[in-house]
Amino acid sequence: MMLHILYLVAFTVLAVIAIANLIRSLVVLSRDSQRSYSPRGMSAAVDGSGYPASRFRSVPHPELLDDTGNIINEPLLVMRSINVEDAREQLDALFKSSPGNKDTDEE
Length: 107
Hints:
0% strand; flat; transmembrane helix; transmembrane; Phage_Syn9_Gp224; membrane
């Protein structure tokens, strides 16, 4: 009976630790998503809170900028639907053009 109580206490403690870890991770993730990035070439001065100092202007993430540093104002992912046969033809063409492909027709 004492062993059952010990198991209950141990798993309760582990569950509380896991939930606290989950909540802490969610808070850190939400705080990081609000963080801005410093421009290239400028060192990111950080104040006591871990965020860049306010003397630098807010710059979006580098993946949202084009080669000249301007903000991209278009969809980053455009998907079009194709049928199964077209997808299979494109995959076959990629496979046949790959460097490691050995044609099975010659065998």
